[in-house]
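Teaching assistant's notes for section 4

Start the section by putting this record on the projector. Ask students to predict, before seeing the second block, whether Aspartate-semialdehyde dehydrogenase will look compact or extended. Collect guesses on the board.
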Amino acid sequence: MLPPIIPLSAAPVTSQHDPVKPPPTIPPVVPTQPTSSDGTIDLKNHRDPEEQALLLRDEQRRQQKRRKQAEGDRYEAVPGEELNADNTVPVAPMGERTRQGLLVDIEV
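Reveal the predicted structure now:
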């Protein structure tokens, strides 16, 4: 017995029957490539990374000096009538007297 006759239009298309495609004129898109470690681009002030590191370090030192000076001005010792814990420097008491060494009776 003969196999059924299938019209040519109904024949399955395989890779052998596909027409040859010309290569694309546009190259395929590739994933983005990692750039330098600095992700930002500053067009106004473009400096060498080493120079920027030095400038940043200098600015941090200036800020530390300002903080130390501000703290030093804020916490200056005021001479007073009482001596400190070592009995060496006269200082003014801050707020209330300390309760260190006082005995307290507690009933439970």
